[in-house]
Design goal:
This protein is of the alpha/beta class. Helices cover about 30% and strands about 15% of the residues. It has a 6-stranded mixed beta sheet, sandwiched between helices. A 6-stranded mixed beta sheet has the order 9-12-11-10-13-14. Strands 1-8 form a two-stranded parallel sheet.
């Protein structure tokens, strides 16, 4: 009985315990030492398994080689490795410069042939030569085309050789333009020389009438204010300038045949785009100011007018001059606001006569009344006076423009204006004496001298628009 139980127990255990050959194989596994307790590790999510796929067999090397031989364009070849750029590229690459175009500059000009040169006044020659090598000055707004040119568009000068000849219908007829055109002779069909006659601003009404009827073959214009002529260096005598394709003045002061020969020489030059510099504009020095010459200042209170001392004067407005208008150039101007009906005004007349006489070379005295001419003459008659009893200029301003400008509330009232248009003194005629006038006269003389000097340094003193 015990044997049977033992055999049955052995059979049951053999079916439950794993063997050394399998998890649940027959037999007992050899005893194993006890395992240490497992170390806890974070659980990893279980990844779903996918059934393994068997890759299809690829082509053999012989098949690949044969395909490449039969289809060479279909084979992708690895690109050549790009060498590293040793320098980083500029974020804004410089704009390429056309080698045919040079930077703006004054063009070097060759001397003309001696037989080309016209006899000119040295001042005219110098004024013209100042523009040599510089760009042709642009035409101003007051250059007006006349004759046949006025009925069509003005000539396009860009890219063409140009001859500009000054004319004056009072002295030089526009026929000189036709003589230059004749000297040019027959030109090739693809070459053009534009000839322009410019009338200087002299006797403009006569010039316009004659030039509108002119049959000249050239392009004729009138420079009404002389600004373009001044920029070119053209004054009273007839002169010319010759301009190349790039707009640079290359020759000046030539005779008619010389101008034509110079133009042909410029036509023969190889075409090359050159940016030509503009002629620098000479600027006069800044006008002298009160600080430069030391004008005295006056601060006495004013009761009969607005205080404009140290401020620009209102423009001188006169309706009628009863005497000859005075020469105010470079002088102090003393304005006496008065009227014939005003007793104190007429009482100050001898004093103002004395000032006008004593300072005749440095002061211009003007008596200004807001009376009408009839009222003024009637007032003089009542005082038994005549206009020549005033030893200074007399003018009428019935509208009272100047009186309102100075805010005159009572007369007589005096205002003194310096050569720069600034009010320097205001007050009553009786307060006007040598202590006031002498310092003002001296300062005004210094102001005139400084401004005259700066004006001479800024220009040659010749020209139409000065």
């Amino acid at each position: 009985m015990r044997k049977t139980s033992t055999a049955i127990l052995s059979l049951v255990l053999s079916s439950l315990l794993p063997s050394a050959h399998g998890q649940f194989g027959g037999g007992f596994a050899p005893p194993q030492p006890p395992s240490p307790p497992p170390t806890e590790t974070p659980a990893e999510p279980v990844k779903p398994t996918t059934p393994a796929q068997t890759a299809p067999a690829g082509p053999t090397e012989e098949e690949i080689q044969k395909y490449e031989e039969e289809n060479p364009d279909a084979v992708q070849k690895p690109a050549d490795p790009k060498p590293a750029d040793p320098k980083p590229a500029d974020p804004k690459p410089a704009t390429p410069v056309d080698p045919k175009i040079e930077q703006a500059k004054r063009i070097e000009c060759k001397a003309p042939e001696k037989s080309w040169i016209a006899r000119l006044d040295p001042a005219d020659q110098k004024a013209l030569e100042e523009g040599l090598g510089y760009a042709l000055p642009p035409m101003t707004a007051n250059v007006k085309w006349v004759g046949s040119t006025a009925t069509k568009s003005a000539p396009n000068l860009e890219g063409n050789v140009v001859i500009i000849q000054s004319i004056d219908v009072g002295n030089i007829a526009p026929a000189i333009v036709d003589r230059i055109i004749a000297a040019l002779g027959t030109m090739p069909a693809d070459e053009t020389v534009i000839v322009i006659g410019v009338q200087v601003p002299n006797k403009l009404d006569l010039a316009k009438k004659r030039l509108e009827k002119s049959a000249t073959k050239g392009n004729i214009c009138i420079d009404e204010d002389g600004q373009w002529c001044d920029a070119l260096g053209i004054y009273k005598k007839p002169v010319n300038v010759v301009v190349d394709r790039n707009g640079a003045i290359r020759y000046v002061g030539l005779n008619e045949k010389g101008a034509a020969a110079a133009a042909k020489l410029l036509l023969a030059e190889p075409k090359k785009i050159v940016e030509v510099a503009q002629k620098p504009v000479a600027t006069a020095a800044a006008p002298a100011t009160a600080k430069d010459v030391g004008f005295p200042t006056f601060t006495e209170p004013l009761n009969s007018s607005s205080d404009l001392r140290g401020q620009p004067s209102p423009p001188l407005k006169v309706q009628t001059w009863l005497t000859q208008e005075p020469n105010m150039n470079g002088k102090l101007v003393v304005i006496d606001f008065f009227a014939t009906w005003c007793g104190p005004c007429m009482a100050a007349r001898p004093h103002m006569n004395e000032i006008a006489k004593q300072y005749a070379s440095t002061i211009a005295v003007i008596g200004l009344s807001d009376e009408s001419k009839s009222k003024f003459e009637e007032g003089l008659k009542k005082k038994n006076l005549k206009e020549n009893d005033f030893k200074y200029a007399i003018a009428l301003d019935p509208a009272g423009v100047m009186k309102q400008g100075f805010g005159i509330r009572g007369i007589p009232s005096i205002a003194i204006i310096s050569n720069d248009g600034i009010v320097r003194w205001q007050g009553h005629p009786n307060s006007l004496d040598a202590g006031v006038l002498d310092p003002l006269v001296a300062a005004n003389a210094r102001l005139s001298a400084l401004n005259s000097k700066s004006a001479k340094s800024g220009s040659s003193g010749r020209g139409w628009s000065k």
